[in-house]
């Protein structure tokens, strides 16, 4: 990326942060994706070559550090990178408040992938939990499994080989609304947007998972304005 050639701190910061894909890469490393393939999984559309280029740039700028763990290479945020995450989070708050999600941006895999990263395996009430999500809006694939385990979480597009603990039937729009905290599980069920077939303990877990997004409490500006006008 060509620099702005300005001494302004905003310009200097933008030279690092405002490059395409960089905020997404930082987000993924922040939520625990330390290996190249893990970062790539959470960035549909990002090519391997561009990711490699961005990671090299971030390493040169002191934002991430590259560590070798046996034969594997991992990327971790430095103190500089952790401070840059605050910019990421502020951008996310602004986006949640002021931006509307176009329908074509709705991605069931990415919603479940982000959810899998937000759920702490250490908090699971069981050693392994498998939740099947059946999508009703013609998405392909139209079925995913959220596989949660103490050893790590993942999203599968094929049966993971374990019995389902519960089944959620939903379209992509309602799935994203629930994951992002825009609507609670109970409200989605009452509205007919989500159907859950699961034991009570899993329903309680699902209700909690729908509040994990760091932007769950951000009220969109249009709703805040409407609420103020009505008050």
What this model shows, in words?
44% of the residues lie in helices and 17% in strands. The chain is globular. It starts with 8 loop residues before the first helix and ends with a helix. It has 231 residues and is of the alpha+beta class. It is built from 10 helices and 7 strands. The strands form 2 sheets. Strands 5-4-3-6-7 form a 5-stranded mixed sheet. It has a two-stranded antiparallel sheet with strand order 1-2. The longest helix is centred in the middle third of the chain and has 20 residues, at 79-98.
Task: Please give the structural blueprint.
Blueprint (H helix, E strand, L loop, with lengths): L8 H9 L4 H9 L5 H6 L6 H13 L3 E6 L2 E6 L1 H20 L9 H11 L9 E8 L7 E7 L4 E3 L9 E5 L1 H8 L5 H6 L3 E4 L2 H10 L11 H10 L1
Parallel strand pairs: 3-6
Antiparallel strand pairs: 1-2, 3-4, 4-5, 6-7
Helix pairs in contact: 2-5, 6-7
How would you concisely characterize the structure shown here?
This is Winged helix-turn-helix transcriptional regulator. The protein has 231 residues and is α+β, with helices and mostly antiparallel strands.
Q: Main β-sheet, in a few words? A: 5 strands, mixed
**Distance N to C terminus:** 48 Å
Quaternary structure state of the chains depicted: single chain
Low-pLDDT runs: none
Q: Going across the major beta sheet, what is the strand order?
A: 5-4-3-6-7
Class from helix and strand fractions: alpha+beta
Question: Whole-number average pLDDT?
Answer: 94
Tell me the fraction of residues in β-strands, as a range. Answer: 15-25%
- Return Rg in Å: 19 Å
Query: In percent, how helical is the residue content?
Result: 40-55%
Query: Secondary-structure element order, as H and E?
Result: HHHHEEHHEEEEHHEHH
Total strand segments: 7
Large-scale geometry: globular
Task: Count up the helices.
Answer: 10
Organism: Nonomuraea maheshkhaliensis
Protein name: Winged helix-turn-helix transcriptional regulator
Keywords: DNA-binding, Transcription, Transcription regulation
Pfam family, one: HxlR
């Amino acid at each position: 990326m060509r620099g702005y050639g300005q001494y302004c701190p905003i310009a200097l910061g933008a030279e690092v942060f405002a490059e395409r894909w960089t905020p997404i890469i930082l987000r993924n490393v922040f939520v625990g994706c330390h290996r190249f393939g893990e970062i790539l999984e959470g960035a549909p559309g990002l090519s391997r070559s561009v990711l490699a280029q961005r990671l090299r740039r971030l390493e040169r700028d002191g934002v991430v550090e590259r560590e070798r763990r046996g034969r594997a290479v991992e990327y971790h945020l430095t103190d500089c990178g952790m401070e840059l995450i605050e910019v990421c989070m502020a951008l996310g708050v602004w986006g949640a408040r002021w931006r509307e999600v176009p329908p074509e941006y709705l991605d069931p895999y990415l919603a479940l992938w982000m959810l899998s990263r937000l759920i702490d395996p250490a908090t699971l009430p069981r050693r392994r939990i498998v939740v099947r999500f059946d999508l009703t809006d013609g998405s392909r694939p139209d079925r995913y499994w959220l596989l949660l385990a103490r050893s790590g979480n993942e999203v599968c597009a094929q049966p993971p080989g374990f019995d389902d603990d519960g089944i959620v039937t939903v379209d992509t729009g309602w799935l994203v609304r629930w994951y992002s905290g825009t609507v609670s599980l109970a409200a989605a069920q009452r509205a007919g947007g989500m159907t859950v077939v699961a034991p009570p303990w899993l329903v309680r877990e699902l209700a909690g998972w729908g509040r994990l997004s760091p932007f769950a409490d951000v009220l969109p500006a249009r709703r805040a304005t409407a609420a103020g006008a009505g008050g």
